[in-house]
## 1
Amino acid sequence: MTGFPEPSGETADTAELLARYLDFYRAAVVRKVASLAAVEQRSSRLPSGWTPVELLHHLAHMERRWLVWGFLGESMPDPWAEERDGRWHVPDDLPLESVIDLLTQGGSRTSDVLAAHALSETGVPGGRFEGDPPTLAWICFHVLQEYARHAGQLDVAVELAGGDLGE
């Protein structure tokens, strides 16, 4: 996707709109991180200490937790694999391309879920959700707000490091 999904009469299908916005934000965070020099991708200029590649890795795992483990109810060996000692972590030997592939594969899976399920369907109990799981619509809105919030946070880190900003 090249630009922000502008309003149009092209579709009123909520699942398609969610898929487009998620695709847009995935592409935006990848572009921002990839615009940085390799050392800046794995360095932090922020008091909180997270790095741009850690944020990207977090987003990939976050989306899988909500859609694959949560909604579909599929087993995940380590749903919190991007965390270590209470903070985001990316192994030093994991290249950026592998993190991007993980994010892209998760995005394709989300698009498949949105194409195959009604937004009113609820997630599978157990795993991520005990009790009453949320609907696919709720899950997608949550994932979308995570991407939007983190894309904004990433703008600050990328601006400080001299990379591409904005949408």
Note: Helices lie at 14-34, 38-41, 52-71, 96-116, 136-161.
## 2
Amino acid sequence: MQLTETDIADPVPAADMLSALDLTKGMPITPLTRLTTMDSGTWEDFTLELVSCIRPTYQKVVRCGGGGDMGRDVVAYKQNGWDNYQCKYYADRLSVADAVLEVAKLIYYSYIGEYELPDAYKFVSPKGAGVQLLKLLNDKTGSTWRKEIYARWEKICKNGITAKKEIVLDLSLKDYIEKKVDFSIFDEIPPIKLIELHSNTPYHAIRFGIYHKKRPTPPKAPMEINWKEEQGYIAALLKAFSQNKNSKLEIDNLTEHPSFAYEMSSARNNFFRLKLWISFHKTGCRRRAF
């Protein structure tokens, strides 16, 4: 039996340079991935940190999550009214069923007078809303919301709102849903927006660390000389080489002097590397909080 050997291509080198931090700690976890490493309690803490800082007009921000929260997690009180940030820490994106139950809780407890309806109600989840839920949230007329709530009440809401008793969708409650509930208040905060908002809080570095943009691998100088950009330093080097040899040296005959050719090649590489670093820093990509 004859074995056939096949050469394996060399791996493509990384486009970015490894830093000392990469070698000692491993590659950093991206902020989006880090959102999925929390537990439900930490997720409410994260949301509380975020909400406490995103709206200076909030007079008080409290955490209500847990038993007896009556469908509220992080509550932000304003001078008049309040906003609710509903924390849902699931492995997958939020579904319509997930949202309907939470909205039904809000509807019921406001219906029996435990609190007034909020001015805004935001779902906060590490994976965000699923496609069907996004469609539901985008319908600000409320017609799709009401249709979903009525269709799912018996299966999801009747025994899911509270463990103490069944909540029947009677005519009075249905009339409240039709006439009093403004479904335009319901929305979500996408995961990438959560990171952006949290980055403005003093807690961000503690939760996410300090991130820096990876430095790209330095490029080599192109074979063709760009005289418009490179003439100044190349002319100065050729002048120095010529003085050393007491004869006029040009680019064309520099190969006859290997040490000078090496110096010229090194200088050109450094020139293009310097251009890269200048561009890198001008874009504001120094080490910074994400």
Note: The first strand starts at residue 60 and ends at 63.
## 3
Amino acid sequence: MPGRAWPGELVRQALTDVRESGLRVVPVCSYVGRYVRRHAEFADLVDPATPELASWLDRQLTAS
């Protein structure tokens, strides 16, 4: 996949896998968040990023 198309394809495939697995996603990555906003067919998979989740994620990333 030449050019800039591959990041979107990667996100699309990941969200498709999430759907097939029966899981949900919290888009803490701004790219994924924008992708979902632009591709409404994935909106049903998304849960909001709460302040509690952001705090938990910060703790996890600093513990690594």
Note: The chain has one domain: 5-63.
## 4
Amino acid sequence: MLGPSWLDPQQMLHSLGPWALLVTLIIVFAECGLLIGFFLPGDSLLFTVGLLVAQSFIDTNIALVCALISIAAIAGNITGYWIGRKAGPAIFKRPDSRFFRQEYVERTRTFFENFGARSIILARFLPIVRTFITVMAGAAGMTFRSYLVFSTIGGILWATGLTLLGYYLGGYAFVADHIEIIVIAIVALSFVPIYFELRRHRSAQPPS
């Protein structure tokens, strides 16, 4: 695991027992909407949840699990948006601290400016950026209706997609034993559409 042992999704969820799903929903909400949540293991957590549902450790129907996680992600996105609308400028002017870095803001700002509304969907698969993009959208004055549409699409794709991957692929021994590698591969693949979007965006710009 590329981080502290307490952030290992398998270790964390097994230690939580019957509270595993509830804590997962809280973590997803925090990562999607609260700036304190960007360091949480969102991608690997969802994949592990799917795996544990397949193993019956989490004794809840997979469709219900996907629905609940999607709702938590969307609710977090909405919360982050309104934080940005109300206090975005003040938040983004904060000095660097142990967890907050201005480079995170600049990285997200560039991403948002390059892709516009589509960034709300694309950012779902990018750690750190997916946390700050919600606040950025609110601070930039993106209309809530438009934000809600893209946020809902992105939240469902991310939450349901990664959870189902864990559910259907977790039964394979290689996958179960190499979750971190699989998740890193998934994140790497998520850069493919972003790469082509960036190329299209640049080619559409007139030469200077």
Note: The CA atoms of residues 84 and 90 lie 9 Å apart.
